[in-house]
Write a structure and sequence with these properties.
Strand order of the largest sheet: 7-6-10-8-9
Helix content: 10-25%
Number of strands: 37
Shape: extended
Largest sheet: 5 strands, mixed
Number of helices: 16
Structural class: alpha+beta
Strand content: 25-35%
Distance between the termini: 131 Å
Length: 764
């Protein structure tokens, strides 16, 4: 028992030690990669050297805020430091089984659970795992504290008599005081217990009566009490808590209410009677605890369901769902939400109210907020204030200081232009517009000739509040002209045309020519400006220009016009044709660039070193875009070697194989050495065909990738010739194709009819 108490003392000492350290306090916001090696070792040694196991030490760090995604990095850092700096670790802090330490995941049980953030006001108070809402055990014993079994009292006499006794209240409610005997104090407050102990001890210590000896009673250790939490609680059940705990301590321990539980009418039951009703809004809104009642053993806390909830949104300081008592008004609900924010329209609130299956919409004016009682499920919305300016006027466009200005009576357009520091040089003077809204909110527009206004002051125009003046720029009213250059320049595309632009300017703005550019054949296309009403045939003129890289010859001084189109072609023969891939039984397989446009199969094979002694030219396979090209290169035909290749083609040379493979629906699929070209001899060598085989659909796959099937005429079948490296494939007959097909039956019927007719003729 003594060792167990010593162990508990060590663990508690370690916890207090780590809490007081800066690292433990900051673990909630710490990242292990920001810790120095010394800090990592110090953090570990503080736990390990105080007697905690490796598993308990990790649990402690997680409980103090080490994030789960940082645990693995912490362990890796720690194991690595133990390897490289073993001498700096004390013997008690060394990790004996590093692999087991890395695999251990029991620390997950200490990861705090986060409740889902709720839009219901007050419920998030119970969501944070980092809030410690525990009773303060280091306070003077409250005078209303009721003494019970397991409390430990410190009875002290000072003065003429001096003694100190630690007396624990036994299950019968008595304490044993030397020379006094048993004193029953169960159920008494601490003040009542002192009076009873005083009267009992006065018989053994007469000096107490004449006040020459003084009695002091304090609680040295508090008992635990059992409290039951029921109803709409997040974690209902029985809890063992300190006798100093208040109802707020118990509420937080239970995790608060569920989404259907109330915060406004939490009931405290004692001896089957309700002794208090707790409204948490008082604490959440004002920070006061007027009903922080001390709990007693066997108390029951009940979370009833809520009675009324409303939602307040829009331009309020704290939009949320609020719980109201039956007699609370809209003004009180608005006060719960913090009131209107700075942008709110405060004259009214909009209320959407359920009315059976339908909803009704109400506008509640400010003067009835204090009398209006919201109903269950009401949705209340505060609108934003739409700013309305009584004296605003706007000027935009080609002035030096565009923007909003304050309107004053008798303000004119000329005076406003002066406020805006005048017109810019690019202002379009013959046209400006004034958009106006009348007192009846009708819209109109007025056109202004600024040139006339500036010359003649009598043409000045009076302005009105909310007028909007637009001063156009010359560029806004003119089409933006472009020239286009395409082809082999670094930055092809459209470029804004400017008067005086020359060909060399355009080339430079396009980044210059690329290496492949045919600069001696640059083509310029220009639209013919034909203003006649006749449909013309020739619309564009073409000019061939010869350039050089210096951009200084005569053609490069060619003056451009708007909408010109210039194309720089590519050099005719400055072109990488492409490549061909060669693989298989050649001396130098690889990818070869085509050196001429008509390069043949034979040319590429020669560049690959020719075939190895195992290669079979007759089994050459040629692929184009992934599709096999049928080539026939037997001993009597080699013209296909002169077939021109295209970029991306590939050649594959099969190995000279003296075997014939028979596969499919035969009894013994096998490889057979080539001895003859007879198709059926190889079928026989494979044990013949199975019952479900379709010999009529058997075919040969040659080494060059080409397939060939048998042919037939009437009842006669002609099988393809077998060559070395061939593969005979006998497919299975589908279930529906057993017996003669419809076409075969039709052919047989026709032949039989013809034979019968022929026999009849011969008989006659």
């Amino acid at each position: 028992m003594t060792k167990f108490l010593l162990r508990i003392t060590v663990v508690l000492t370690t916890l207090l030690f780590l809490v007081n350290k800066g690292q433990a306090q900051n673990l909630n916001n710490s990242r292990i990669n920001q810790f120095s090696d010394q800090q990592v070792m110090q953090l570990w040694q503080q736990a390990a050297e105080s007697g905690l196991s490796e598993t308990d030490a990790m649990k402690l760090l997680v409980k103090k805020g080490l994030k789960p995604n940082e645990v693995s990095q912490f362990k890796k850092r720690l194991v690595g430091l133990q390897t490289t700096k073993k001498s700096q670790f004390s013997k008690s802090s060394l990790i004996q089984d590093t692999s087991g330490f890395m695999r251990d995941s029991t620390w997950v049980l200490e990861v705090p659970e986060l409740k889902t953030i709720s839009n219901r006001y007050g419920y998030n108070f119970f969501s944070s795992p980092n809030i410690s809402f525990e009773p303060n055990l280091r306070i003077a014993t409250p005078k209303t504290y009721v003494v019970g079994p397991d409390d430990q009292l410190n009875v002290t006499l000072t003065g003429l008599n001096e003694t100190e006794v630690l007396a624990r209240v036994n299950p019968d409610g008595n304490i044993n005081i030397p020379y006094v005997g048993l004193v029953a104090i169960n159920g008494l407050t601490i003040e009542q217990a002192r009076e009873r102990i005083f009267s009992k001890m006065a018989k053994a210590y007469p000096a107490l009566k004449n006040n020459t000896t003084h009695l002091s009673i304090t609680l040295n250790a508090y008992r635990t009490i059992r409290v039951t939490i029921i109803g709409e609680a997040e974690r209902p059940g029985g809890y063992q808590i300190s006798a100093l705990s208040s109802i707020f301590n118990a509420l937080y321990t239970s995790g608060g209410p569920t989404e259907n539980g109330t915060l406004r009418d939490i009931k405290l039951m004692r001896n089957n009677k309700q002794i208090a009703s707790i409204d948490l809004y008082e604490f959440l809104q004002k920070g006061t605890m007027p009903e922080d009642i001390r709990l007693e053993d066997q108390d029951v806390i009940l979370y009833p369901p809520y009675q009324k909830r409303i939602e307040i949104g829009g331009a309020v300081k704290r939009p949320a769902v609020y719980e109201l008592k039956p007699n609370e008004t809209l003004a009180q609900a608005l006060n719960f939400s913090g009131g209107f924010n700075d942008s709110a329209f405060t004259d009214r609130l909009k209320v959407v109210q359920r009315n059976g299956r339908e909803k009704t919409f109400k506008d509640i004016e400010y003067n009835v907020f204090a009398n209006y009682l919201p109903q269950q499920g009401d949705s209340i919305y505060a609108e934003k204030l739409t700013p309305v300016f009584e004296n605003k006027i706007i000027i935009t466009g080609a002035v030096y200081r565009p923007g909003q200005y304050g309107y004053t009576p008798n303000l004119t357009l000329k005076a406003l232009l002066k406020k805006a520091d005048g017109l810019r040089s690019d202002a379009f003077l013959t046209r400006a517009t004034i958009k106006r809204i009348s007192a009846t909110r009708e819209r109109s527009m007025l056109s202004v000739n600024l040139q006339s206004l500036l010359k003649d002051a009598t043409q000045d125009i009076a302005l009105y509040s909310e007028d909007s003046i637009q001063i156009y720029t010359k560029q806004e009213l003119e089409e933006q002209q472009m020239v286009t250059i395409e082809g082999f320049v670094r930055n092809p595309g459209k470029i804004q045309f400017r008067e005086g632009m020359k060909m060399q300017d355009l080339i430079a703005m396009a980044g210059g020519f690329t290496k492949e550019a045919a600069i001696h054949r640059v083509e310029l296309s220009r639209i013919i400006k034909n203003k006649t009403d006749n449909l013309a045939n020739e619309l564009v003129t073409i000019a061939k220009l010869a350039m050089d890289t210096s951009l200084e010859n005569n053609d490069q001084q060619y003056t451009l016009q708007a909408q010109d189109y210039i194309y720089v072609p590519r050099l005719l023969n400055s072109l990488f044709i492409g490549d061909v891939k060669v693989s298989g039984a050649v001396l130098f397989p690889g990818t070869f660039a085509l050196e001429k446009r008509d390069e043949t199969i034979q040319d590429v094979l020669n560049r690959a070193g020719g075939l190895t002694k195992y290669g079979s030219i007759k089994d050459l396979q040629v692929y184009r875009n992934g599709v096999l090209i049928g080539v026939n290169l037997d001993e009597n035909n080699s013209k296909d070697l002169s077939l021109p290749l295209l970029p991306g083609d590939s050649l594959f040379i099969s190995r000279n194989d003296p075997f014939v493979e028979v596969t499919g629906a035969v009894y013994s699929p096998q490889l057979t050495r080539y001895e003859s070209s007879s198709f059926k001899s190889y079928i026989s060598a494979a044990g013949g065909v199975k019952n479900k085989a379709s010999l009529a659909k058997a075919y040969i796959h040659y080494g060059n990738g080409i397939n060939q099937k048998q042919t037939k005429f009437l009842f006669f079948r002609f099988y393809p010739r077998v060559t070395p490296g061939s593969k005979i494939i006998v497919p299975e007959m589908p279930q529906a194709e057993k017996g003669f097909s419809v076409a075969e039956l039709s052919a047989i019927t026709s032949i039989v009819s013809a034979l019968v007719g022929l026999a009849a003729i011969l008989k006659l």
